[in-house]
Write a structure and sequence with these properties.
About 70% of the residues lie in helices and about 10% in strands. It is built from twelve helices and six strands.
Length: about 375
């Protein structure tokens, strides 16, 4: 039998000595304070010492044990698992009563399957498969949401939708009137930028009057609608996702369902109606401010008469261009409303999930706005608009 072995780690230490009352057994003497802040010996090193003596049983001796905390319990749990897997058998009958109760409580609840992080890298094919299944599931949820929204609109047309008109008008104010300052500022600056960039080139040919054409056509056909859509995606779509996500966390949506009220009609429908209604009006406002921004550059920088600038704008921009821009703005409004409300309804039950839903709503809205703009541009070109 080997002599006594001691491995000290600050105040926590252990000794392995022969057990005088049991031939072929060892006694593991635990010495000092086994506390987290001081550090404790590792269970692997102790098990290696015990296994090296080829004993069949090990009895814990806690007569010299001082203070202990969770580090001591973690050590015992690891040592017990190692002993159960590769011997020698561990006798814990001499442990303090508190430690015995805590270990019994920890052993009474089995470890949940999948709780421990799996080692190794997930195979590429498995990752692709999981991503594909997740995309298919997300697509199914999106189609289900769109179907529910269409049903809610159908009930609205039949006068059977249940929601509060006061909520609708409040959302209209938030989406429309309160968005005027930021939409006006951005649109005016976009008009200034378009006019300035055009003026740099057109002045070289003495064609600075065509700055009015550039600004008016650009704002009417694409820029006004696109800027309104992106602003609403970052402002309104994120707000919708955060509001509905917070309701999901607080179980307010579940409460509405319990009361027999459809969350799609009571919460989603007013928001979608307000955004679809106000987006074309905001687009008109953006067109006006963008043209004024271009006129500011034309009058101040290019010394063009304001009346001449407005006449050139009117002559170069038919109403069909403005109508096409309004249609695009309406589509962008639908995209922002669907993405914002969808992500809010899909939100999880934690504070982090609300932030993730808000971020996802903004990103998804912007991506689909760009895709919609590309598709509508191709359609307009095919129709000769």
């Amino acid at each position: 039998m080997a002599a006594a072995i001691q491995n000290k780690n600050e105040t926590a230490a252990f000794e392995v000595v022969p057990d005088p009352g049991d031939k072929g057994a060892l006694r593991l003497v635990l010495v000092g304070d086994w506390l987290t802040r001081q550090g404790v010996p590792s269970a692997e090193s102790v098990h290696a010492e015990l296994k090296g003596d080829r004993a069949t049983r090990v009895r814990l001796d806690t007569t010299r044990l001082g203070a202990w905390d969770t580090a001591f319990l973690t050590f015992l749990r690891k040592l017990d698992r190692l002993a159960a897997a590769d011997g020698p058998k561990l006798d814990t009958t001499s442990l303090p009563e508190g430690a015995t109760r805590l270990l019994r409580l920890a052993a009474s609840v089995p470890e949940r399957a999948g709780a421990r992080k799996a080692a190794g890298r997930t195979p590429f094919v498995e990752r692709v498969g999981k991503s594909t299944l997740a995309c298919l599931e997300a697509g199914g949820e999106t189609l289900d949401f769109i179907g529910g929204a269409l049903i809610a609109f159908g009930r609205l047309l039949r006068g059977r939708a249940r929601f509060r008109w006061s909520d609708f008008w409040q959302v209209v104010q938030e989406v429309g009137a309160e968005a005027l300052p930021i939409v006006g500022l951005i649109s005016f600056l976009v008009g200034v930028i378009l006019a300035f960039l055009g003026a740099i080139q057109l002045v070289q040919f003495g064609a600075q009057i065509f700055v009015a054409d550039l600004v008016a056509i650009g704002m009417a056909r694409d820029m006004a609608a696109m800027m309104v859509g992106i602003i609403l995606a970052g402002r309104t779509g994120a707000a919708f996702a955060a509001q509905l996500g917070t309701m999901q966390v607080n179980e307010e949506i579940d409460a509405l369902s319990t009361l027999g009220l459809s969350p799609m009609e009571f919460l989603v429908l007013p928001r979608m109606m307000a955004l679809i209604l106000m987006t074309p009006l905001l687009c008109l406002y953006a067109n006006l401010l963008g043209i004024l921004g271009g006129m500011f550059v034309g009058v101040v920088m290019l010394a063009l008469p304001a009346v001449l600038y407005m006449q050139q704008t009117q002559a170069s921009t038919p109403l069909l261009f403005f109508a096409g821009g309004l249609l695009k703005a309406t589509v962008y409004g639908i995209v922002v409303a669907v993405c914002g409300c969808l992500r809010g309804m899909q939100c999880g039950r934690s504070a982090a999930a609300v932030g993730n839903a808000t971020t996802s709503a903004v990103v998804t809205s912007i991506v689909f706005i760009i895709l919609s703009m590309a598709a509508l541009t191709v359609i307009y070109d095919a129709l000769g608009i």
